[in-house]
Specification:
84 residues, 3 helices, binds flavin-adenine dinucleotide, 21% strand, alpha+beta, two-stranded antiparallel sheet, 36% helix
Length: 84
């Protein structure tokens, strides 16, 4: 009996030989805010292959988990926000 000329393996190998695979561009993600939420999301998206940019309005990251420094003292950001 005659062998089939187009098996799945043969089709697959002929396709890969004729196609020049181009790497796909990394999808981009922009995150506003470097609090815990933004930072964790940035890490997860980066791990998943995204090109991530994080924009933070303050000089320090951390959001409500960060600190305010004043005359050698350190205050929780969230507590100071509540005093305003
Ligand atoms: C007193 C207090 C105690 C807490 N204790 C605990 C605890 O023990 N355990 C716990 O799990 N959670 C605790 N929490 C909750 C926890 O701190 C918050 O849920 C968490 O920090 C929120 O993170 P977030 O990233 O969602 O928001 P945020 O921390 O508010 O971050 C948002 C970020 O976005 C930035 N941003 C905002 N607008 C812009 C803009 N237009 N452009 C650029 N950047 C911008 C801000 O500057 C900030 O850095 C506490 C909260 C408070 C207030």
């Amino acid at each position: 009996m005659k062998e089939p000329t187009t098996t799945a393996a043969a089709a697959s190998s002929s396709t890969s030989a004729s196609v020049d695979p181009q790497p796909l561009p990394r999808p981009k993600a922009i995150i506003i805010g470097a609090g815990v939420g933004g930072t964790a999301t940035a890490a997860r998206l980066s791990h998943a292959g995204f090109d991530v940019e994080v924009y933070e309005k303050n000089e320090e990251s951390g959001g409500r988990c960060s600190l305010i420094r004043y005359q050698g003292w350190r205050f929780d950001q969230a507590v100071v926000e509540r005093m305003r």
